[in-house]
Amino acid sequence: MDKINISNKFKMFEETWTPKIITELNGQQVKLAKLKGEFVWHNHEHEDELFYVVKGELILRFRESGTNEQTEVILKPGEMIVVPAGVDHKPIAHEECHVMLIEPAGIKHTGDVQHELTKDKLDWI
Amino acid sequence: MDKINISNKFKMFEETWTPKIITELNGQQVKLAKLKGEFVWHNHEHEDELFYVVKGELILRFRESGTNEQTEVILKPGEMIVVPAGVDHKPIAHEECHVMLIEPAGIKHTGDVQHELTKDKLDWI
Hints:
homodimer, Cupin domain-containing protein (chains A, B), 4% helix, Jelly Rolls, RmlC-like_jellyroll (chains A, B)
C-alpha cells in the first residue's frame, strides 16, 4: 500500500498512445498516458471511460453512431469527462498532453478496432 | 456528456467531511471532499477506495486489524493511494485539504461506523 506520485510516474516513460497502469481498485484500473497527434475512432461497447487532463490540452471528438454528426469537447488541466459505453470517440492532442484514465481492467484502448496503435498488453509502472 | 472542471466544483461547497459526487462510471463514483481535522477510524469491508490529493496535505493513518500497530502515509498534491477493502484507516488534515475520491456507488464514507459525521445520502454537484 504505497502512495503514487503522478508527476514522478509521468517521468518514467516517453511513448505516446501507450497507457501505463499505475493502480487498480474494484476492478477498475487507473492509467497514465501521453498523447500527441490523432488517435483512431473507436468505442468501448460495455465500458465507460474517464479522461482527466493533467497537462496540455485534449480534444475529444464524438460522433453519433451511424451518422457523420460530430461534436467536440476541449479539456484543459484539472478537467475531466466520462465517455459512456458505446459512444464513438477520437482523442486529439495538437501538443503533447498528459492524461489520467480510469476504465475497467482488461479493456482495449482502441476498443474493437484493431490498429497499429493497439497494444495487446499494457505495462504497469 | 459535459466536461467537469475540478476547481470550479470545489468552489461550490464549503462543508468538510461531506463528499460530493461529481460523476460516475462502471458503478464507481468520483467525489470531491474538503477535509480538516481528524476523521473517524473506519474501513470498507468489500470496497477499495482511492484518495487523490488536489490541494493541501492528507495524512492517512492505518492500523492492523485487532492490534494497535499504526503506520501512516502523507499525501501531497498530485499524490494518490488506494486503500484496499477491509483496511482500517483514519484520514487527518491539519490544514484544509482538498481530495478526489473514487469508490463504488452507495458506499458509506464512515464504513460500518455510525458517527455524527456519517451522511446517509451524498449530494451531486
